[in-house]
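In this notebook, the sequence line spells out the residues, with the fold written below as integer tokens. This is how one looks.
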Amino acid sequence: MKARGFDDAGAKTVVLIREAAILLSSTFPGSFSLYGGANLILFHDSARTSRDLDLIPKALDCPSVDEVIKVLSVELQELAGLLGYAPLTVEIVHSRTMPCKLELFSGEGATLFTIDMGGLGAVAASGIEEHSLEAVSRSATAAVQVVSKNHLLLQKAEAFVGRARVKARDAYDINLLLGAGAVLAAELEDGLADSLAMRELDGEDLAALIATIDAKKCAAELQSVLPVEIYRPLEAVGFEPLRASLRTLFRKWL
């Protein structure tokens, strides 16, 4: 992870997030699908710092929040110790039922990362892939279910237009996914069209949103979460690649 530009703390966090995803997938097979920033880091070579493990639970197969906490509290301890974070603790941020958010702390009380379970609606089976990952703390390999890059692109597009305040990280992630070959097939494009119609957004509105991804916003939101070797080239061209990717994604409606 350091080779990708993460600092020491960021690299350790990614290792813990990866291990948590593996432990939950092996203990509760088929119960969760991984999306969001952790998905992008683990499977699409994203270098953007993320301290969130976002999971979509399957309603019929979902374990209880207490079961999830028990697995994390016990099974992550050895790795947390090796990384200098023991004793690791897990606390509920909100709700003892799904949807739920957990926060994991180091022995010194620092936040390591959060786990958000149920913050997103279900994804069609066609949008779920399986990747085999080997655990670090024990001899185990898990089939981790993840949202595909095409469906991630739809989720990111909907996030970009749906937030109360536009986020530069969505633009960065969209640029990353398009570069990785993600596309919106007909049914996904229809889903995005429905989202735009529901929000009553036209081409002029989209152009205005894209224009907000300017140098000031990107500097404020991306400089602290991107390695310098990725951030500086974007800064040098005024972050135009991010706006260009947004125009590509929304070209049908602009």
